[in-house]
Design a protein that fits this description.
Layout: E1 2-5, H1 18-38, H2 40-46, H3 52-73, H4 78-81, H5 84-101, E2 103-105, E3 108-114, E4 117-119, H6 121-139, H7 147-166, H8 170-186, H9 191-211, H10 221-234, H11 239-251, H12 275-308, H13 312-336, H14 354-374, E5 383-386
Antiparallel strand pairs: 1-5, 2-3, 3-4
């Protein structure tokens, strides 16, 4: 094995998979229009009627997220491996501290302030968790033949993080846990081990729900129980679900046009948890198909990068982040059309919010880093290994 310094040809900066850059840009443009449209009532309630306040804020958040994606994709993926375990431990501590000292809203402590910026640690903890699983699946193939090794290094890490998230954010905990389980399936873990893990997860979740009222931390279990009861017994037609359905029904084929949605004025979190319903009312079935098509296109591009990967670590990294992003998108869409109980999951790269946008951009930046290394589109001064 020898070292060779490789200087890229070409004067372009955005390397990796160009189609992913296009998908991200289009989703961000849709976000700018929809956030501006859906935050009108919020601006009058909180920002003194300044309707451009949240527009400028979202543009800055998206710009910062795009810069983070660009910055992350410049670094080789091997650079993350050395920091995964310390980062995972630090994120676990951050989650625990948020449960005790975090900002409380809607009976949950999900947010902390860092240098005056409000962040949600559950959005960031999934990054080192997926990297840790990817590294373990790639480098510990022989050890993973033993259930004890699967149970403790992998399942214990996943379970501990999901439990910490679960106290304040049920839907995110389930999303992260399900994504990690799918990644274990892709990683060729023995089926009987996966069955044991599934039974353990379901049993632990039931036990948590039963014991949650006795925990000292504020939890959302009662709220979630109410939402599940409403979904199964009333078809999901609570206030939020009902107005989301009305918004989608009003959209018809072409929609009412940007800024003409009526349900955005009464639908809670129309700029975040229900932004898909708002964009369908304004853009109709056509825009809904375009948005869903963009996420499917993104999944196919990530799958293409996985297929081209020669390193198992790269394959699992792309699979883990791709599953997280696209699964979150379609869970959000399913909830908006009444196919699931109401949750607080934003639509990736479209909903208003800083933590979600930044975390998603970092994940996509890592995928792009894999793509550019496959194409040998390295930056000046980088060194690559050549057989």
């Amino acid at each position: 094995m020898k070292k060779e310094q490789h200087l890229s040809k070409g004067n372009y900066l955005f390397r990796g998979d160009r189609q992913i850059w296009i998908i991200v840009l289009v989703l961000m443009l849709i976000s700018i229009v929809e956030v501006y449209s859906t935050t009108a009532s919020l601006a009058y309630r909180i920002a003194g009627g300044d309707t451009e306040h949240y527009l400028l804020k979202q543009i800055l958040l998206l710009a910062f997220g795009g810069f983070a994606m660009f910055l992350v994709h410049m670094f080789p993926t091997g650079a993350y491996a050395r920091l995964v375990v310390p980062a995972l431990l630090a994120m676990g501590i951050w989650l625990g501290a948020t449960l005790v000292f975090g900002m409380e809203a809607n009976s949950a402590r999900r947010w902390t302030q860092v240098l005056g910026v409000t962040l949600q640690p559950s959005d960031f903890v999934r990054i080192p968790l997926i990297l840790y699983i990817a590294i373990t699946l790639a480098e510990k193939r022989e050890q993973l033949k033993s259930f004890s090794y699967v149970l403790f290094p992998l399942v214990f890490a996943i379970g501990a993080i999901c439990v910490l998230i679960l106290f304040a954010n049920f839907s995110t905990a389930v999303l992260v846990g399900l994504s990690c389980f799918i990644l274990l399936m892709i990683g060729n873990i023995k089926w009987r081990y996966l069955l044991y893990v599934l039974l353990l997860a379901v049993g632990s979740l039931v036990a948590f729900i039963k014991l949650a009222p006795y925990f000292p931390f504020s939890t959302r279990v009662a709220t979630w129980a109410s939402r599940w009861d409403t979904f199964w017994n009333a078809g999901g037609d609570n206030f939020q679900g009902l107005h989301a359905k009305i918004a989608i029904a009003n959209g018809l084929l072409w929609g009412k046009g940007p800024g003409n949605s009526m349900q955005r004025l009464v639908l809670p979190e129309s700029y975040s948890d229900f932004i898909f319903a708002s964009l369908v009312e304004e853009g109709g079935l056509i825009l809904a198909i375009i948005v869903m098509g963009l996420y499917i296109w993104l999944l196919f591009r990530i799958y293409a990068i996985m297929r081209a990967s020669r390193k198992p670590y790269h394959t699992y990294l792309c699979a883990g982040f791709g599953i997280l992003i696209v699964l979150q998108a379609f869970v959000h869409i399913a909830i908006s059309i009444g196919w699931g109980p109401v949750t607080g999951l934003p639509l990736p790269l479209v909903s208003m919010g800083g933590s979600s946008v930044l975390a998603t951009c970092i994940e996509l930046g890592m995928i792009q880093s894999v793509a550019r290394q496959q194409k040998k589109e390295l930056y000046e001064g980088e060194v690559r290994d050549v057989a």
